[in-house]
Design a protein that fits this description.
Antithrombin, Chain I, domain 2; serine-type endopeptidase inhibitor activity; Serpin_dom; alpha+beta; acetylation; six-stranded mixed β-sheet; 10 helices; Alpha-1-antitrypsin, domain 1; Leukocyte elastase inhibitor; cytoplasm
Length: 475
């Protein structure tokens, strides 16, 4: 008998052939009865035996079913693995972007505390993202102790792939199809006779979009200053003018790193201009000034901070990717602005807890009274950054910027930051440039009457990045 395919036998042996006992066997042929076959043998006719019908064996069917089940299981596992990898990648990306947001917020609060020490009762407004981005370009070319101090002061050491993540963040918030206008722009101005390392220039161009303009600080410093100021003014829609004063640059200037940010957004829920009236704003317990007070009654995210008796309100901008978060004490309890207790507790963990969506009511109708205001602030940041530990970079004898140039004397001589914000019934316009909560059980209607000093910041919600941070204490 010829060998039969394994899948087609029921009596196979280890070799996959029919057993010898079946060859020339006297088994009845298919379709013949035993009597018919016996009669044929008596008559001397040849009887040819036929093997059993060709049908799948039980063991083969079981193996086939088992194989099919295994295949399905493997496919399911592969699908789960693929999904897990994608989810894991998203979580990893989210985690790393959280690192960047935390570092930016940490730096914002550190710098705010230093600005507060110098100005305990006045207005404050700055862009932490703008400043840290400018410092990141310096960090890109820093080495040794200079890089270490920069990393610690700006909390860059807590971020993996810092420059790549800042590039990704800039791309994310600089979208041309966004329902708001938000532009970040960077540029380098270098002395044309000075030699900068090609790798540094390539990296700043690739990661920060910062092109190098070769200029003549040596012979025409004031002309270059005008050129820089005009570029900044153009990038901020005319809101930031004269970023660099006359004494900011001179014939010894080698490099100016300029970073500008501009934001204009409309409220998701606009204030009605007809509801805006003259109201008193209390600067302290004793002093008042009249302001144009806007009013709105809407359902808005609202929270309360028990520890410092403070209300939290979120005013989303159109599209809800950006929001203004306001922190308002119940009243002026101290002899200053009423913000002392809140500002003392203003650390990273607290701010995140107070303003996270899980700790905010979203279905409360809030009666909002908010003054129209406009702030324009300018800072020479050197002393504040030195107070944060950033010293070497300003010292020509200690600064190690050998990643920018092989010259030994290169250092940062000045970091200037200028910012602007305007809040009205339509929304907010803001700009800046740099060179260089547990909730209580509460009634469904809430009052948020900002007739006394408050803190505020503008946040990019998808990444939790603080773009601007400020204190409004005086109209």
């Amino acid at each position: 008998m010829p060998a039969i395919d394994v899948g087609e036998t029921s009596g196979e042996n280890a070799s996959g052939t029919w057993p010898d006992s079946l060859e020339n066997s006297q088994q009845p042929r298919k379709g013949l009865s035993s009597l018919q076959e016996t009669q044929e043998r008596k008559e001397g006719r040849e009887v040819v035996s036929t093997p059993p019908p060709e049908k799948p064996s039980l063991s083969w069917r079981r193996r086939k079913a088992r194989f099919a089940g295994t295949q399905k299981r493997h496919l399911a596992e592969a699908s789960r693995t693929s999904t897990d990898i994608r989810v894991g990648e998203r979580r990893e990306k989210s985690f790393i972007m959280d690192q960047l947001a935390n570092a930016n917020t940490h730096f914002a609060l550190d710098l705010f505390q230093k600005l507060t020490e110098a100005n305990s009762t006045g207005n404050i407004f700055f862009s932490p993202l703008n400043i840290s981005s400018a410092l990141a370009m310096v960090y890109l070319g820093a080495k040794g102790d200079t890089a270490t101090l920069l990393s610690k002061a700006c909390h860059f050491d807590a971020v993996e792939d810092l420059h790549v993540k800042l590039q990704a963040l800039s791309t994310k918030i600089n979208r041309s199809d966004a329902p708001y206008v938000l532009k970040l722009a960077n540029r380098l101005y270098g002395e044309k006779t000075y030699c900068f390392l090609k790798d540094y220039l390539t990296s700043t161009q690739k990661l920060y979009g910062a092109e190098l303009s070769m200029v003549d600080f040596l012979n025409a410093a004031q002309s270059v200053r005008t050129q820089i100021n005009q570029w900044v003014e153009g990038q901020t829609e005319g809101k930031i003018t004269e970023l660099l004063s006359e004494d900011s640059v001179n014939e010894l200037t080698k490099l100016v790193l300029v970073n500008a940010i501009y934001f204009k957004g409309s409220w998701e829920e606009k204030f009605d201009k007809f509801d805006t009236t003259d109201k008193p704003f209390r600067l302290s317990k004793k002093e008042k000034k009249n302001v144009k007070m806007m009013f709105m009654k809407k359902k808005l995210p609202f929270g309360y901070i028990d520890d410092c008796k403070c209300r939290v309100l979120e005013l989303p901008y159109q599209g809800k990717e950006l929001s203004m978060i306001l922190l308002l004490p119940d009243d002026i309890e101290d002899d200053s602005t009423g913000l002392e207790q809140l500002e003392k507790q203003l650390i990273l963990g607290n701010l995140q807890k107070w303003t996270c969506s899980q700790n905010m009511y979203s279905n409360h109708e809030v009666y909002v009274h908010l003054p129209k205001f406009k702030l324009e602030e300018s800072y020479d940041l050197q002393s504040y950054l030195e107070a944060l530990g950033l010293r070497d970079v300003f010292d020509s004898g200690k600064a190690d910027l050998s990643g920018m140039s092989r010259a030994r004397d290169l250092h940062v001589s000045k970091i200037v930051h200028k910012s602007f914000v305007e809040v009205n019934e339509e929304g907010t316009e803001a700009a800046a440039a740099a060179a260089a909560v547990a909730t209580n059980s509460m009634p469904m209607r809430e009052k948020f009457n900002a007739d006394h000093p408050f803190l505020f910041f503008i946040r990019h919600n998808p990444t939790n990045t603080i773009l601007f941070f400020g204190r409004f204490a005086s109209p």
